[in-house]
C-alpha cells in the first residue's frame, strides 16, 4: 500500500463468502478496524478479490458502485472516470434498467415503489454487463424520471472498454450481477445529507414537488434503503465515507485500477510481455526490496527469491520436445524434455545478480557478459563483451533486474542479433520494467520475449523507474551509501 496507509485503518481477510472485512477509506479514522461483518463497524473492505491479480488480462475491469439515493455515487464515478482519462471507461447506470410504468401504474405513480429490486429489469442489466464484459457493445435504454418511462425510440450505444462502471442503489442486490464485478465500492453518506440533496435534485431536475418527495422518501425510499441497500453494503470491497468529498479514497481506488490496467494494457499491446502471476507473496517481496530502510542482507535475500521466480518463469518460455519415461511402477509417463541449447547473458553489473539463480536452475549453463557504459541516459557505449562462441545456435536468457529506458537493453539485444542469435530466441528477464522501457524494446524487437515480475508506473525526469527500487547493483553488491 502507498504512504497513505498511515491514515487508513485496514484489515485484510480472505474473502470467504459474502462477509468480507476490509479497508476503511475515510483517511481520518482513529478507531481500530473491526473484522466483524457488521456494516456499521466494518466499513470498508479490501477483499482479496479486489487486491489480487485475478482479472484475466483480456477482460474489462468491472467496478460496481452502490449506496443510498443521492449518496454521491454518480459523482464518485465521474471522479474516477476523470482520473482514468488514459483508459477507455464506460458508465452504466442501473436507473437505465427501470421497468417503464404501464398506463395503469402511471395513474397511481405515488403508490409505486421505485426502490424495490423488482422495479428494475435485472435480467436485462445482467445481459448488458455480460455482453460488455465479453467485448460486445450494448444498446442501453434511456430512462425518463419525469414520466417514469423508457424512451421507445432511442438508446445509448455503450461500447466495449477497459473499465466498466455499474452504478445504482441496488447493484449489489443480485448475486449474479455481483459476481461479474472485480471491485465493489459502497458510497456511504449520512441519511440527512442524502435527503437534503434528494429534495433539491428531485424538485429542480425531476419536476417533483417537495411534498411528494418527502412522502415518497418516508413511504418507500427509506424503508427500502434499510431493507435492501444497507444490507448489501457487506458485499463491498471498499466503502467510501462522504462520497465525492473523500479524495484520499478515490485516489487510492484509481491508483489500484491504474496498476492493474497498466499491466494488462501493456500485455495486450505486446503479447510477448509476460508479467508473472501476482500473489501476496510476490507483492510482499516487492514491498521489502523496494523499502529504502531494508538491510542489505534482506535486500539480497528477497531479491534472490524473486529472481529465482522470474528465471523459472522465463525457462517456461523455452521450446521443448515431448519425451516418454518409464516410472518405477512400470508405467509410461509422457512428459517433455528441456531445451538444452541455451545460455545466459548478463548485463554487467546488476545482471550478474541473476546468474546464481540461473545456474541453480540450469546445471553448467554457459553465461556470457556484456558491459555497456551509460552515456548520459542513452546507454549507447558498448565497453566489453564475452559471449559463448556458438551463441547463434542457442536460446539466450538476457539478464538485467531493471528495465528503465530500454536503451542499454536495446544495445545488448542488437549485439546478440549481430552475433547471429535470432530475435525470437532471446528472452529478457527482469524484476521491474518501466512502461517506457517496454515500449522502447518491444517496438524495436517485437518477437523477443520479456518476462518481468512487475510493471511500474513510469520513469521520472532523471530516467529513474518510479516507484522503482533505486540502484539495484549498488544495493545488491553493497556499494551504496
Ligand atoms: N460531495 C458533494 N457535495 C455537494 N453536493 C454533492 C456532493 N456529491 C453529490 N452532490 C450532489 O448531490 C446530488 C446527488 O449526487 P449524485 O452523485 O447524483 O448521487 P447518486 O448518484 O448517488 O444519486 C447531485 O445534485 C450532486 O450534485
Ligand atoms: N421514476 C423514478 C425512478 C426512480 N426514482 C428514484 O430514484 C432513486 C434512484 O436514483 P439515485 O440517482 O438517487 O440513485 C430511487 O431512490 C428512486 O426512488 C424516482 O423517484 N422515480
TrEMBL record:
GO BP field: CTP salvage; regulation of starch metabolic process; UMP salvage
Residue ranges occupied by any Phosphoribulokinase/uridine kinase domain in the UniProt entry: 62-248
E.C. numbers: 2.7.1.48
Domain of life assignment: Eukaryota
GO CC list: chloroplast; cytoplasm
Region (Disordered) location: 23-54
GO MF assignments: ATP binding; cytidine kinase activity; glycosyltransferase activity; GTP binding; uridine kinase activity
Nucleotidyltransferase recorded as keyword: no
Biased composition (Low complexity): 30-54
Leading EC class: transferase
Pathway where it operates: Pyrimidine metabolism; CTP biosynthesis via salvage pathway; CTP from cytidine: step 1/3; Pyrimidine metabolism; UMP biosynthesis via salvage pathway; UMP from uridine: step 1/1
Residue ranges constituting the Phosphoribosyltransferase domain according to the UniProt record: 278-479
Keyword terms: Allosteric enzyme, ATP-binding, Glycosyltransferase, GTP-binding, Kinase, Multifunctional enzyme, Nucleotide-binding, Transferase
CDD domains listed in its UniProt record: PRTases_typeI, UMPK
Coiled coil: none
Pfam families named in the record: PRK, UPRTase
InterPro entries tied to this protein: P-loop_NTPase, PRK/URK, PRTase-like, PRTase_dom, Uridine_kinase-like
Reactions accelerated catalytically: cytidine + ATP = CMP + ADP + H(+); uridine + ATP = UMP + ADP + H(+)
Family of the protein in this entry: In the C-terminal section; belongs to the UPRTase family. In the N-terminal section; belongs to the uridine kinase family.
Official protein name in the record: Uridine kinase
Organism whose genome encodes this protein: Populus trichocarpa
Amino acid at each position: 500500500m502507498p504512504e497513505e496507509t498511515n491514515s487508513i485503518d485496514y484489515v485484510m481477510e480472505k474473502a470467504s463468502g459474502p462477509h468480507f472485512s476490509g479497508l476503511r477509506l475515510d483517511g481520518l479514522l482513529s478507531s481500530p478496524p473491526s473484522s466483524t461483518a457488521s456494516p456499521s463497524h466494518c466499513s470498508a473492505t479490501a477483499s482479496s478479490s479486489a487486491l489480487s491479480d485475478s482479472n484475466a488480462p483480456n477482460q474489462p475491469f468491472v467496478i460496481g458502485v452502490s449506496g443510498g439515493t443521492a449518496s454521491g455515487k454518480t459523482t464518485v464515478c465521474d471522479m474516477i472516470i476523470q482520473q482514468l482519462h488514459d483508459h477507455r471507461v464506460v458508465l452504466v447506470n442501473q436507473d437505465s434498467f427501470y421497468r417503464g410504468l404501464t398506463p395503469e401504474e402511471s395513474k397511481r405513480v405515488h403508490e409505486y415503489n421505485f426502490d424495490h429490486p423488482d422495479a428494475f429489469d435485472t435480467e436485462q442489466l445482467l445481459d448488458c454487463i455480460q455482453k460488455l464484459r465479453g467485448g460486445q457493445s450494448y444498446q442501453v435504454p434511456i430512462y425518463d424520471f419525469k414520466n417514469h418511462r423508457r424512451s421507445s425510440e432511442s438508446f445509448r450505444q455503450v461500447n466495449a472498454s477497459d473499465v466498466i462502471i455499474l452504478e445504482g442503489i441496488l447493484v449489489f442486490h443480485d448475486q449474479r450481477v455481483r459476481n461479474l464485478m472485480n471491485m465493489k465500492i459502497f458510497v456511504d453518506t449520512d441519511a440527512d445529507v442524502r435527503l437534503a440533496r434528494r429534495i433539491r435534485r428531485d424538485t429542480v431536475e425531476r419536476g417533483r414537488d417537495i411534498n411528494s418527495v418527502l412522502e415518497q422518501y418516508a413511504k418507500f425510499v427509506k424503508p427500502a434503503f434499510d431493507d435492501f441497500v444497507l444490507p448489501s453494503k457487506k458485499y463491498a470491497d471498499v466503502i467510501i465515507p462522504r462520497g465525492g468529498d473523500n479524495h484520499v479514497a478515490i485516489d487510492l481506488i484509481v491508483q489500484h485500477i491504474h496498476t492493474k490496467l497498466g499491466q494488462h494494457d501493456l500485455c495486450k499491446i505486446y503479447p510477448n510481455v509476460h508479467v508473472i502471476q501476482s500473489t501476496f507473496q510476490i507483492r510482499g517481496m516487492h514491498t521489502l526490496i523496494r523499502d529504502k530502510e531494508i538491510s542489505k542482507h534482506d535486500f539480497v535475500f528477497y531479491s534472490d527469491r524473486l529472481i529465482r521466480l522470474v528465471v523459472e518463469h522465463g525457462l517456461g518460455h523455452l521450446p521443448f520436445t515431448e519425451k516418454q519415461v518409464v516410472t518405477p511402477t512400470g508405467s509410461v509417463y509422457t512428459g517433455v524434455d528441456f531445451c538444452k541449447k541455451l545460455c545466459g547473458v548478463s548485463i554487467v553489473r546488476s545482471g550478474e545478480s541473476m546468474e546464481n539463480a540461473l545456474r541453480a536452475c540450469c546445471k553448467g549453463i554457459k553465461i556470457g557478459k556484456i558491459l555497456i557504459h551509460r552515456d548520459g541516459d542513452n546507454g549507447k557505449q558498448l565497453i566489453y563483451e564475452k559471449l559463448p562462441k556458438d551463441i547463434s545456435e542457442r536460446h539466450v536468457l538476457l539478464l538485467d533486474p531493471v528495465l528503465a529506458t530500454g536503451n542499454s537493453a536495446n544495445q545488448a539485444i542488437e549485439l546478440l542479433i549481430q552475433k547471429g542469435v535470432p530475435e525470437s530466441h532471446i528472452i529478457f528477464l527482469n524484476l521491474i520494467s518501466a512502461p517506457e522501457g517496454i515500449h522502447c524494446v518491444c517496438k524495436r524487437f517485437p518477437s523477443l520475449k520479456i518476462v518481468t515480475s512487475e510493471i511500474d508506473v513510469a520513469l521520472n525526469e532523471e530516467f529513474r523507474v518510479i516507484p522503482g527500487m533505486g540502484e539495484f547493483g549498488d544495493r545488491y553488491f553493497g556499494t551504496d551509501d
